[in-house]
Amino acid sequence: MMNNIKFKRTIPVVFDLLNAEDDPAQILYYQNLITCMWASPLLFLGALANIIVVYFFWGGNLVEVLLNSGIFLLLGLSFEFISRKELTINLFDHLVSLTQSITLAFIVVQYYQIIGPAVWSVSFVMIILSLMRLKITMLYYIAITTFVCGLYVTFLLPVDGFLFSPVYFLIQNLLFCFIFCLASATFYLNLNRYDKAVVRLNAVTSQKEKIARLYKKLILTKKTLTVQNQELQAFNEEIRKNEERLHFLAYYDGLTELPNRKMILERLHLLVNLSENEKASFFIVFIDLDNFKKINDTMGHLYGDDYLRYTAKRLKELVHEDDLLGRLGGDEFALIIQRNIKEDAAYNYVESLRNELCDKIKTSCSEFKVSASFGISVFPQDGKDPIELLNSADTSMYKAKELGRNNIQFFRPDMKEEILNKIQMESLLLKAYENKEFFIEYQPQFNAEDHHIRGFEALIRWDSPHYGRVAPMNFIPLAEEMGLIIGIGHWVLLTACHKFKELDMRFDQNLCVSVNVSAVQMRDKNFVDTVKNVLSETSMDPRQLELEITESLFIDNIEETIDMLNEIKALNVRISLDDFGTGFSSLSYLRRLPIDTLKIDKSFIDDLSDQDSSIRIVGDIISLGHNLDAHIVAEGIENSTQLDYLKANNCDCIQGFMFGKPMSVKDMEALLQKNPLK
């Protein structure tokens, strides 16, 4: 298609466009356009000149003059019309060439008699113009038209006017052929030179475009490399931050931001190697927070985490800058004393940490006291490697826990044996629970005045295949710690009630049975339902069941305990406060407790003598219990002096070896048969 770019249609503008153009097709378009722009006004001018000259000066026929002028005008409009239509380059070239040929033929036919051989000048001008074009199409059109016009002039033109002999036609056509051949040769020569120039131009243009593309690609590559370099820098920065983060995660605790177990162990490995070479020593301190589980269970894990963060921050403020403090996990911390100091200095240093750490944390719900147990091991006597040192420190820390918490213990070799014994005891106790190695003995209780049997206290016993008879005080705390006490306690309660129901049906003496209840059992939310189920299963009169509790039960949460005791009391079950006077007795809560019986601890009974002030204390306890409308039971009666004093002070019931040791069911039956005791 022809170029439809809008431009000003003037000869200078088109020439400028032609000179600036490299595309052959576009050059041909501009050449045809110039031909049309020259031909149209010349033909319009010819139409006007024909009227003026032929009609006015030569007196020609008006109709013929107007007809010829119309043809001139029509040919001029044809050029103008062709130049303004959007046509293909080839069609545009053929139409322009055809229109020029028609114009030449019209001039020869209509005006040869007037202007004579001058028409051939027009033909030669057209041929010369055709030679200046890129394509030879117009040259062929003009050549053929000129040859046909020559035949017409020679053989068909009327005799009047200019005469044209055949010899002249032959010479003229020979000359025309020579000019045509010369024009064609010149055209092809110029076209060949032009083609070579175009090839060179195209090659240069192609190289230029290739260089431009390469330059553009280079710019894009540069931009891409710049972006990739920025991304690489950002990626490297991200890798660096990730490495720092990974290093932190690998060597630091996420909650407290203290060094973790891995860093502690690596530092210990380093210190062991250095200390072996330099024959030096260092200390590892194992720190375990006291009562953390209670805080975590009571307040929730979020508060527990805050508690750990607070403790870690407090310890960081207190430790020496040359020492390494870390968190091993849970509520366990480790402190490596890397300085070369003596054991007494290390103890004083840790003691200062213990004292400074003790603090109270107040919340909207409660108040907790921060304290910790400290275990210390020393390199090299307490361990040759980090694991052994940590185990030794851990062992000494557990010893500090056993001794009441919130204290400091250095490692001793016998502690390992204690730990191993405890582990063995735990294993055997678990087997005893699974294999039902426990049994119950019953210690009788008597009225102080007439020695009638009041009832029996059910006491659990354990005959271990390994240890033999194990005292309750040696395995009950361990059962509580292991979580076995709830199952054991349920078995004791159920067994005692079953047996007592059988004896009550046989002897019908309206006695009671006392069963000790652990503080762990009382904290079990299902304990009241357990009591109900036992009473229902055994069909026992609840008034004959007495549950013995200790004062330690009220340390943690007195309100919940009182609520549970009231639920039990609502079942008509009796409640006895055991070991009264040895715990944390307070009149403020004694008045609120729904207790039926107070048991005076054996330690007070053992000290009864005329010289001991405890005599007055026991009397006061009895008086206090009666004022609280409680039944008083004294345990541990072993001689008449103790018995006489208790009778004199109106003690209600007595229990002890003087009247009866813990006995089997068979011995109970024998005792009931001779009740009252003579």
From TrEMBL:
Organism expressing this protein natively: Acetobacterium wieringae
PANTHER family xrefs: BIOFILM ARCHITECTURE MAINTENANCE PROTEIN MBAA (PTHR44757:SF2), DIGUANYLATE CYCLASE DGCP (PTHR44757)
UniProt-listed PROSITE patterns: EAL, GGDEF
Domain spans labelled EAL: 422-676
Transmembrane segments: 36-59, 139-157, 169-191
Residue intervals of the GGDEF domain: 280-413
Pfam families on file: EAL (PF00563), GGDEF (PF00990)
NCBIfam families registered for this protein in UniProt: GGDEF
Protein name from the UniProt record: EAL domain-containing protein
Keywords: Membrane, Transmembrane, Transmembrane helix
CDD domains hit by this protein: EAL, GGDEF
InterPro entries: Biofilm_reg_signaling, EAL_dom, EAL_sf, GGDEF_dom, Nucleotide_cyclase, Rev_trsase/Diguanyl_cyclase
